[in-house]
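Try this one yourself first.
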């Protein structure tokens, strides 16, 4: 009985492993880095692909943007402001982040950050504002008001969004260890956003962050991430909550305490980012095909 209790505690803390990874990650990051460097949308109406991050407060949305920037620059950066102590949403305005290339240009994808979702009424991003952002009606710099949705007469309301203004892939972000603690209210909001995106044809995926905090063995070695039974269980749970297919959910560790980049952490971020771009590119291509049809 004592051994069983120890084993159960070990498993609960994320210590049990599969003998083989349940998802493979490339041994080298160069192919994915080259893909990011050379990517251009095939749809001639789009100069960039827009990725919108959403999720609960403190999930790591802004940190993921910084982590993507860090991976592509090969050093730790802090383009998107983050906060570890406020308890509420630190992101108050709609902001587009572009990442500069060594050549002087920018990558052909952008990431958008917005106010986090919260459980209580009149807190967090207003759901209607989030839906307006999906369709490109929210202009850069709009300050979110949890109590009042954006009005059509607002100076930040975009009445005629172009394809560039619209969101091309929606990504939900949540800490891996918080899935069991996700309130029904926040889960419902996330499902509502997913439904709105589906009605617009926008593809969706998810990233589970802070995998090192969820699993001590992953904290010791990031390469254990897709061997962890505990993390696989969290992916399965999140798939059930949101209805996302398992191959649309990725595990990542953001650069939050590190002072230099790491190949293993980079690999997880690049795999997730490449899938975001692939899904978004499929969406843009489908629009192009629809436009060409008689």
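Now uncover the answer:
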């Amino acid at each position: 009985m004592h051994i069983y209790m120890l084993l159960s505690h070990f498993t609960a803390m994320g210590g049990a492993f599969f003998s083989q990874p349940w998802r493979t990650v490339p041994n080298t990051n160069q192919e994915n880095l080259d893909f990011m460097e050379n990517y251009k949308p095939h749809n001639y109406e789009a100069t960039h692909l827009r990725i919108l991050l959403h999720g609960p407060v403190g999930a790591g949305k802004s940190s993921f943007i910084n982590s993507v920037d860090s991976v592509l620059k090969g050093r730790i950066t802090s383009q998107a402001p983050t906060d570890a102590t406020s308890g509420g949403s630190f992101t108050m305005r709609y902001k587009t982040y572009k990442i500069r290339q060594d050549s002087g240009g920018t990558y052909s994808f952008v990431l958008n950050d917005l106010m986090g979702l919260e459980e209580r009424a009149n807190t967090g991003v207003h759901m209607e504002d989030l839906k307006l952002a999906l369709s490109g009606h929210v202009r850069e710099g709009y300050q979110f008001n949890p109590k009042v949705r954006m009005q059509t007469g607002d100076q930040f309301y975009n009445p005629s969004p172009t394809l560039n203004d619209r969101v091309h892939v929606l990504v939900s972000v949540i800490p891996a260890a918080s899935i069991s603690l996700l309130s029904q209210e926040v889960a419902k909001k996330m499902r509502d956003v997913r439904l709105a995106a589906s009605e617009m044809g926008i593809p969706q995926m998810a990233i589970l962050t802070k995998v090192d905090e969820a699993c001590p063995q992953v904290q010791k070695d990031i390469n254990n991430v897709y061997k962890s039974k505990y993390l696989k269980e969290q992916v399965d749970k999140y798939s059930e909550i949101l209805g996302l297919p398992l191959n649309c959910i990725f595990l990542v560790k953001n650069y939050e305490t590190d002072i230099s980049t790491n190949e293993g952490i980079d690999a997880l971020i690049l795999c997730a980012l490449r899938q975001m771009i692939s899904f978004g590119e499929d969406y843009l291509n489908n629009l192009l095909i629809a436009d060409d049809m008689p």
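Discussion: The two ends are 70 Å apart (CA to CA). The chain has a mean pLDDT of 89.
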